[in-house]
Design goal:
The chain has one domain: Aminopeptidase. Helices cover about 25% and strands about 30% of the residues. It contains 4 helices and 7 strands, in the order βααβββαβαββ. It has a 7-stranded mixed β-sheet with strand order 1-2-3-4-5-7-6, sandwiched between helices.
Length: about 160
Amino acid sequence: MIDGQRVRLDIRRLTLGDLSDIERIEQRVYPTPWSRSMFAGELAKPSSVSLGAFDEEGRLVGYLIVSRYVDAWHVMNIAVDTATRRAGVASRLLEELFELTAGDVRRGYTLEVRVSNRSAIALYERYGFTANGVRRGYYTDNREDALIMWKDPIRAGGEPDG
């Protein structure tokens, strides 16, 4: 279901075969979408985690692109198709990321989000991210500031480290 109801999803790693569907969503939801080559580069990097959420008909409805750095998993891009917003897609993608990386107690999680994107900020806060700074003029389309958010590493049992 949609309109506020969680949908049944299959979460799996994205492949180069998913690029057209990724681009379709990216162009719908972002004023300055990533290029096809940016996505292809992330999908090919061994240090990235690229997850897709697929509905019951096998259609891509959301994705999450994360790069591994020395001290953090950096959420580079997360998008949910407009038709399936508020149906738990972003939550499921984040939950899968945390499950996949739970044993990596050296790395926390970080991301940037538009300061005006209150619903995304609220989502990230529900998952334990906290504001940790601002990048002034970060977004190229309108020079909007980005809120830098951080989440501590997770122990294998699901508890934050520290």
